[in-house]
Amino acid sequence: PGSRFAAMTAAARSRLAGSHFRMLNEQLYTTPSSAAVQLFRDAPDQFTAYHAGFARQVADWPINPLDVMVREVGAALKRRMAPSAPTDSAPLVKPSRPVAIYSFDLVSVAPHITACDIASLPLAADSVDVAVFCLALMGTNIVDFLTEALRVLRPGGTLKIAEVVSRFEDMDAFVAAVEQGGCVCVKRDAASNTMFLFLEFRKHTAAEVAAEPKGIPASLALKPCIYKRR
Ligand SMILES: C[S@@+](CC[C@H](N)C(=O)[O-])C[C@H]1O[C@@H](n2cnc3c(N)ncnc32)[C@H](O)[C@@H]1O
């Protein structure tokens, strides 16, 4: 009987953790990012609870889009860091240029993560080669996030997005709206799996921009990603 009680307690605790996660998740998708900043500033332990729940969801997915992003960005980095060819007078090869990687989240849980709202990044304009949103377009102000990424990207730089397919009402309209921010869609992969959409945009170079880009329409939105009770 003792072990039955323990099992029932564990099941109740897990159900509670599940509904706590779903409540936080829904909040993050249905409010502007300023509210998310406030939420975790007032109660940082909610961030741990959110990520424990998110990890339980990821464990059930056929693929983890983060692995895809890491693989693709890693391969691009390797190409870019291809060492200079050795010569007789300079036999030691060196990377073509140093690489800096920035990670941003609402709460910093490791030294390499900068706590900030991605609506406003602590980066100079035209300074970044690649920007990645991996399931990170949460909040009702995704236009702010995308506009900010296009600001910090260098001309010709790459914007990568991985999102849950069911969040898109109209993929063509989404792509067209992001392009109005001053970029062109160069890759769209919804075929290799049914759950996630992978998009890649290239920011216009100075020569390609005839005038100031129109800007992403303020009405652009994605549906919230609501997880079902299991
Ligand atoms: C669904 S999780 C995905 C985490 C990770 N990118 C992955 O793919 O495993 C979304 C993450 O975006 C963060 N986030 C949401 N809105 C944000 C904002 N306005 N500024 C910074 N980070 C934000 C959340 O705190 C959370 O860590």
From TrEMBL:
Domain of life: Eukaryota
A Pfam match: Methyltransf_8
Entries under Gene3D superfamilies matching the protein: Ribosomal RNA-processing protein 8, N-terminal domain, Vaccinia Virus protein VP39
Localization terms from the record: Nucleus, Nucleolus
GO MF annotation list: rRNA (adenine) methyltransferase activity
EC number: 2.1.1.-
Database matches in InterPro entries: RRP8, RRP8_N, SAM-dependent_MTases_sf
Keyword Transferase annotated: yes
The entry's keywords: Methyltransferase, Nucleus, rRNA processing, S-adenosyl-L-methionine, Transferase
Main location, first listed in the record: nucleus
GO cellular component: nucleolus
The keyword Phosphoprotein appears for this protein: no
Coiled-coil parts of chain: none
Function, as annotated: S-adenosyl-L-methionine-dependent methyltransferase that specifically methylates the N(1) position of adenine in helix 25.1 in 25S rRNA. Required both for ribosomal 40S and 60S subunits biogenesis. Required for efficient pre-rRNA cleavage at site A2.
PANTHER family per UniProt: RIBOSOMAL RNA-PROCESSING PROTEIN 8
Family note: Belongs to the methyltransferase superfamily. RRP8 family.
Protein name as it appears in the record: Ribosomal RNA-processing protein 8
